[in-house]
Amino acid sequence: TNQVAIVTGASRGIGKATALLLAMQGASVVAVSRSTDELEELAHKTRGLAITADVCDEIDVQNVVAETLRHYGRLDILVCNAGVGSFSPLEEFESAEWDRIFDVNVKGTFLMCKAIVPLFKEQRRGHIVAIASDVAKRTFPNGTVYGASKSAQDAMLGSLRKEVRPFGIKVSTIYPGLVDTYFNDRQPGNPELEKTHLKPSDIAQAVRYVLEAPAHVVVDELMIHPITQEW
Ligand code: NJP
Fold this sequence. Notes:
The chain is of the alpha/beta class and 231 residues long. It has one domain (4-224): Rossmann fold, CATH 3.40.50.720. It has 6 helices and 7 strands; from the N terminus they run βαβαβαβαβαβαβ. The protein has helices at residues 13-24, 36-46, 58-72, 95-123, 144-164, 200-211, and strands at residues 4-8, 28-33, 49-52, 77-80, 126-131, 169-176, 221-224. Helix 5 (144-164) links the parallel strand 5 (126-131) and strand 6 (169-176). It starts with a strand and ends in a 7-residue tail after the last strand. 44% of the residues are buried. The model has no long low-confidence stretch (mean pLDDT 96). 5-hydroxy-NICOTINAMIDE-ADENINE-DINUCLEOTIDE PHOSPHATE binds at residues 8-15, 33-35, 54-56, 81-85, 104, 108, 131, 133-135, 176, 178-179, 181-183.
């Protein structure tokens, strides 16, 4: 298709896999994150656009939308994927770490949606796909701050879904379990994780699935996790 998609957090992990898959499906992909070199390399592969931006910065975010429209003249899809996390007992968290995690996961999602929803409402069309987390639906030790941020993101998207549905706008939330990425400063590719973790491309396929739903169908929520993972 000739659809234009913004993918945040596209420099690596789930966002990168999603950008590559959507480009392969024929979309024009705008890759967004803070790492210019990685984005340029990706944009070369996807023949798309790379825009360096911090999703916590409202000016950066507005620039992403403006640049996309200047370059392609349209915008159809937002994949809200940029996210961070770290895991410790509650009392060991610095309050600055709370701020960092909430800034990216909650405010970043808020700012991206805020910048795009007016356009989607005006064109009475558009699809927001957010990468939330299965921990938004459960709890686990050391996950207090990350879980709180992902639950906040989830609650925001649930309300937004109801606000924009009358305008024909779709909001799909994907809840992954463990995925083998760079998340939490890890290095992906350890063969031992093959049985316990999904691959970024598994989540990219889930994004493709929700985007390919016919016009009269919306996938509100999609939970996806490794078969070995209890939830
Ligand atoms: O992580 P990683 P994932 N502004 O670290 C970007 C959720 N999730 O792919 O800015 C803009 O490989 C960062 O780019 P850069 C998770 O909560 C994961 O696993 O260049 N971009 C990079 O491209 C998150 O929402 C698991 O550093 C910012 C990307 O985000 C999503 O999946 C399980 C940014 C992170 O890539 C993708 O994470 C689950 C900012 N301020 C949910 N800060 C899992 N991996 O197990 C970061 O349930 N980025």
